[in-house]
Specification:
By secondary structure, the chain is α/β, with parallel strands linked by helices. It has 2 domains: 168 residues, 3-Layer(aba) Sandwich (Rossmann fold), CATH 3.40.50.1970; 174 residues, Dehydroquinate synthase-like - alpha domain (Dehydroquinate synthase-like, alpha domain, Up-down Bundle). Helix content is 46%, strand content 11%. Strand 2, helix 2 and strand 3 form a beta-alpha-beta unit. The two termini are 38 Å apart. The protein binds nicotinamide-adenine-dinucleotide and zinc ion.
C-alpha cells in the first residue's frame, strides 16, 4: 500500500479584517525591485477592495477576466506578459473566487517552467517550484485555497496542474471579503463544498483523516444552509472554514459522481464548476440518496434556481465528447463506485444521466 505524502499550504492567516495585514505579510517576500503581481477578480474593479491592495514600488494589479473558467491560453498570456515586462516577479497573489486563485497558482508556476501550462495538465508534471504565491478567497466553497491543483481548460483536456509545487505559500482567510457575494453565486460555490463532503464521505477512499475534516465541513454547510434562517457575518466566517476543511477532506480522498459528470458539462458547454455540480447533484438520488434529498431541501429553502434541460438538442457527437471527458476521470469513479466502477457506470448509463440534465 502506497500512502499519499502530500504537500500543504505554507502559512494561513484567518479572521475578520486580516486582509489588512497583507502588506506586512508580503514585505519579507519582496525580492529586490521585482514587483508583486495581484491577480484580482474583475468583479472588484472600481470596488473598495481594489484600493486596499497594498501596492509598493512597481507592483501591478491585473484585473483577471473570470467570465469563463481559466484556460491554459490565458495563463500563458499572463505569464508571458509578466516575463516580457519584468523578467521576474516577487510573487503572484490571487484575490477572488476559485478561478482567480487558480489563475494565480498557474501563473506563478509558469514564471519558472518552460513551454505552455497545457504541458503540465496532469499529475506531477511540473518541474520547478513557481514564484511565491498567495491566495485570498472572496467566495467560499471550492477549497482551491488549500488544494494541490489548479483546474485549467486546455486544447485537449480540462485537467489541473496537480503537483507538490501547486499549493499556495500563504493564504489569507478574511470572511469579510465574502460578505457581499450574490445569493445565487454564494449558494453554488457553497454547494461545491457540500458536494465535496458528500462525495468524500460516501466514497470508497474514505479514511479517518478525510472523515474528520469532511464531517466538520458538512456540519457547517448544514448549519448555514439548513439550520440558520438568515445569512449573517457568522455565516461567512463559518462557510470560509467549511471550504478549507472540505478541501482538506478531498486532499486525502477524492470527489465522486457529481464532479465526474460536471467536468463533461464544463468541457463541452462551459458550464461553471459550482452551478454544474448543482445541476448534476439534482439527479443523483441513485448514488447519494440522503445527500440529494438534503440538497433539494437547501435549494428550496434558500430560494435558488437550478437550471434544467441544458443538454436538450445536443448531438450524439456532443454526448460522446462529454461521456469521454467524464469517463476519463477514473479516480473519481473508482472512489464513488469502487474498483469495478466500469461495470456499474457504462456509457449507456451515463448517456441517460446526461439526457436528464
Ligand atoms: P469563480 O471564481 O468562477 O467566480 C464566480 C463569479 O463570482 C465570477 O463572476 C466572479 O467575478 C464573482 N465573484 C467572486 N467573488 C465575488 C464576491 N465576493 N462578490 C461578488 N462576486 C464575486 O467561482 P468559484 O465557484 O469560487 O470558483 C470556481 C472555479 O474554481 C472554477 O474555475 C473551478 O474549476 C475552480 N475550482 C478549483 C479547485 C481547485 O482545487 N483548484 C476546486 C474547485 C473548483
Ligand atoms: Zn468542486
Amino acid at each position: 500500500m502506497q500512502f499519499r505524502n502530500f504537500k500543504m499550504i505554507g502559512y494561513v492567516v484567518y479572521g475578520r479584517g486580516c486582509f489588512n495585514q497583507l502588506d506586512e505579510i508580503l514585505a519579507p517576500r519582496r525580492v529586490n525591485d521585482a514587483p508583486m503581481v495581484f491577480l484580482v477578480d474583475h468583479f472588484f474593479e472600481g470596488k473598495p477592495l481594489a484600493n486596499r491592495v497594498p501596492l509598493r514600488g512597481n507592483d501591478q494589479i491585473i484585473f483577471v477576466d473570470v467570465t469563463h473558467e481559466p484556460k491554459t491560453t490565458y495563463v500563458d498570456k499572463l505569464a508571458q506578459g509578466l516575463k516580457e515586462q519584468f523578467g521576474t516577479v516577487s510573487g503572484v497573489i490571487g484575490i477572488g473566487g476559485g478561478s482567480a486563485m487558480d489563475l494565480a497558482k498557474a501563473v506563478s508556476l509558469m514564471m519558472t517552467n518552460p513551454g505552455s501550462s497545457a504541458d503540465y495538465q496532469g499529475w506531477d508534471l511540473v518541474k520547478n517550484p513557481g514564484v511565491y504565491k498567495a491566495g485570498i478567497p472572496t467566495l467560499s466553497g471550492t477549497g482551491a485555497e488549500v488544494s494541490r491543483t489548479t483546474v485549467l481548460t486546455g486544447p485537449v483536456r480540462k485537467l489541473g496542474m496537480n503537483s507538490d509545487f501547486t499549493p499556495f505559500d500563504q493564504i489569507v482567510l478574511d470572511p469579510e471579503l465574502t460578505a457581499n457575494a450574490p445569493v445565487n453565486q454564494r449558494f453554488y460555490t457553497g454547494m461545491d463544498c457540500y458536494i465535496h463532503c458528500i462525495e468524500s464521505l460516501q466514497g470508497t477512499y474514505i479514511n479517518e483523516f478525510s472523515k474528520s475534516y469532511g464531517e466538520k465541513a458538512l456540519d457547517i454547510c448544514q448549519e448555514v444552509f439548513v439550520r440558520k434562517n438568515h445569512w449573517d457575518a457568522e455565516s461567512d466566517e463559518k462557510l470560509m472554514m467549511a471550504s478549507y476543511a472540505g478541501g482538506m477532506s478531498i486532499a486525502y480522498s477524492q470527489v465522486g459522481v457529481a464532479h465526474a459528470v460536471s467536468y463533461g458539462l464544463g468541457y463541452l458547454l462551459g458550464t461553471k464548476h459550482g452551478i454544474g455540480n448543482c445541476i448534476v447533484m439534482n439527479h443523483l438520488e441513485e448514488y447519494y440518496p440522503e445527500g440529494v434529498k438534503e440538497f433539494k431541501h437547501m435549494v428550496e429553502k434558500n430560494n435558488i434556481e437550478i437550471p434544467t434541460g441544458i443538454c436538450k438538442g445536443l448531438s450524439e457527437e456532443d454526448f460522446d465528447k462529454m461521456i469521454g471527458v467524464s469517463m476519463g476521470m477514473k479516480p473519481l469513479w473508482e472512489n464513488a463506485l469502487g474498483k469495478d466502477w466500469e461495470k456499474i457506470m457504462t456509457r449507456e448509463k451515463l448517456r441517460a444521466l446526461y439526457d436528464k440534465l
